[in-house]
Write the structure tokens for this entry.
Amino acid sequence: QVQPVESGGGLVQAGGSMRLSCVVSGRTISGYAVGWFRQAPGKEREFVASINWSGVYTYDADFVKGRFTISRDNSKNTVYLQMNSLKPEDTAVYYCATGASSYTSRRNNDYKYWGQGTQVTVSS
């Protein structure tokens, strides 16, 4: 069973930084794209960032450009989301997901395996 597991969430002040990790068990992530999504209370889940199988190509939502960076270490079966200059509106549960594709995507349906999420709270 393929299972992404997120970690690294918590409480941070506005302007601060946080790094989320996603460890995938059950198969190697080599060859597969991985994405980060988030869901704030009362809102739909939204795309944050995606990275292709090799890590050469990334695709970011407009609202995170210049602030968040997605990266991967295939030797550790882990994908990271470095978040800088955090804002209160970044408060959400952050999810990691992977699927059968090697290429970046912002579409939920392109991801088959989802983690349980990690809470990120940014205080003003």
